[in-house]
Structures are given as structure tokens and as C-alpha cells.
Amino acid sequence: YLYSAExxxxxxxxxxxxxxxxxxxxxxxxxxxAALLFSxxxxxxxVLFTVMSASAGILCYRLPDTKDVPTxxxxxxxxxxxxxxxxxxxxxxxxxxxxxAT
Length: 102
Hints:
By secondary structure, this protein is mostly helical. It is built from five helices and no strands.
């Protein structure tokens, strides 16, 4: 919960925390069902949890580092930071239309 709140801009924080809570509830529902899968196929259960854990670990590498970075206040600030990261500081703030016009 803390990391997802830190990534979300203030204006979207409630919605992001809602999605995070929704995903956690799906996991809490599916977890006990693993016992039924284990009684049917032990290898299937191990493969399922291995794939899910490895996928989560790989996806975590795509999360940005937020150490010593202030929390964004608006969605526009998030977009500006993304543009700076993708395009470099020199082209920050340039829109797609401006790039196509040149």
C-alpha cells in the first residue's frame, strides 16, 4: 500500500489505492484455492506460484526509484517526469504534435 501511494499523484491517490486494495482482495481469495489445486496437482501448484512470483519480481524492476524524489501532486507532473525520463531533459515538455510538426 505504501509504495503504490507514493507512486500516485495526490489527485489520483484514492483511485490507485482502491485498485491496489482490489488486487490484494483477489489475491486473498485465490490463495486458499491453491489448497484445492495442491490436492489435485502438486506440480501444478508449484509451477503456478513460481511463475507468479517470478513475474512479480521481473515487473518490480520496471518500477521507478523514488528515493529523495518529492511525491507528484498532479497527473501533469507525472507526465512531465515521464517525458523527461524518456526524451531526456533537453526535450522535456515537448508534445507528440510538436515532434511531428518538425
